[in-house]
Structure formats: structure tokens, C-alpha cells
Amino acid sequence: MIRAGRLRRRAGVLLIVTIAAATVTAAGQQSPKRPYFPPRGEWQKKDPSAAGLDKAKLDDAIAFAVAHENPNTKDLSVAIVNQFRAEAPYNTLIGPTQPRAGANGVIIRHGIVAAEWGDTSRADMTFSVTKTFLSTVAGVAFDRGSIRSVTDRVAPYMPPGVDLFTSAHNAPITWEHLLRQTSDWSGTLWGKPDWADRPPRGQTPEQWKAARAGPTRRRLLTPPCARRCRRCARACRRRRCSQAASRMAAA
Fold first, then answer.
1. I need a labelling partner for 145 at 20 to 30 A (CA). Which of 58, 97, 174, 181 fits?
2. Which domain holds residue 155?
3. Residue 87: what pLDDT?
């Protein structure tokens, strides 16, 4: 009787384990829940608390953003020229501009719009955000085979009559160099030389060009912050070629 009871208990345990294992297996085989992806022209909105956010703190953050809006003029035809005034005469505009909108923004959590303020539907000038679009286009071109390899030189891909990559300096440039912004491309586009933004603050492009050929060439090519700290290559990447930045960081 005792032995029979033990056998029944063991059988019961085995049955429970089998059922549990089958349940776990079935759950694992179920397709994962698809993330929310809004259809075109729509975007689901919920109260911040439904998205796991503190509404009061969120309201404070939005109020802070609105109160600290960029105080500069919204007329970009003036603001852009003024921002790059040190690069004159190469800071002239070569295309149309549009006045920027006021402070606006969207806060999204788990694909849900939890907060929105200002005119978020207006099309504005994007500036460096275009790098995101450019990288996407490059990815599509690679997937379609239009770019066979990112390590290919760019020159053979250029249409007839385009000499942007024919010089001895530019010929070795690859797609990867361009996408990583490490090409050190040299030349002139739309009447503006590639070095137009390199002169240090307080020095005109003409002064920089004149001194560049003299004995102080290396000092002028090195930005002030990098001269103070040779490990700082960030400013060099921003205002000089990346190869100089790499040499400076390794020094």
C-alpha cells in the first residue's frame, strides 16, 4: 500500500512537470507581441501616467523648455550668417531659408505620444538632422547594389564630367570615409573652399592662408583647445581634418 501510494505520488509529480513543460513550450512558441507602429497620419496619444510618466514633472520639464527657448532671431537668413561670421566672406548664403518655428516638441514613450507642445506639424529646416536621412539613403543604395562595397573608392561611381575625386589627394577616398566624415576631402564647392571654417577665432581666412605656408603652419592648424590638451581631438574633428585629429590624439 505504501509503495503503491509512492508510485501514485511520483506519477502525479511527473504529470505536473509534463504539463508545466508543455505550457512553457507553448508560451515560447507563441509569436511575440508586435510593437506598436502608428499608421500614416495617425499617432496614438495617451495620458503620461498611462505611459509610466509623472505628469506633473513632465509639465514642469515642458514649461522649462518653453521658458528657455533660443532667444536669437527666428530669421535664419540673418542667424546663419551671424553664426558663421568668423568665416566671412565664405559665410554668405547659397540657398533659400525659412524662419524657424517657436519652441515645440513631442515626447514619445513605448511608441505612444505622452506629451506635445508648440507647432509640431510644421516643416522646418533640419540642418544636421539631414545626416540621418543621408545615412538611410546610403543604406538603401547599398542594399540595392548601387554601392557595391563601402570600401570602394568613390571616384569610379561619379558621372562623366564630375571631377570631385580625381585629384591625387581625393582619389583614395572611399564611401566609408564619407559616411564616417573622415575623408579629408579637399576642394571647392559652390565657390566655398573646404578650409573656409578652419581659421581659428580672431583670424580671417586670408590671414590663415598667408600664415599656413609659413613656419607657424602647424600651430595655426591646431585649434587652441587641442593645443592645451593634445588628447582633445573633438575640436579638431569639428574645425580640422580628421587625419590631423587622429595624429594629435596619438601624439
1. 181
2. 127-186
3. 82
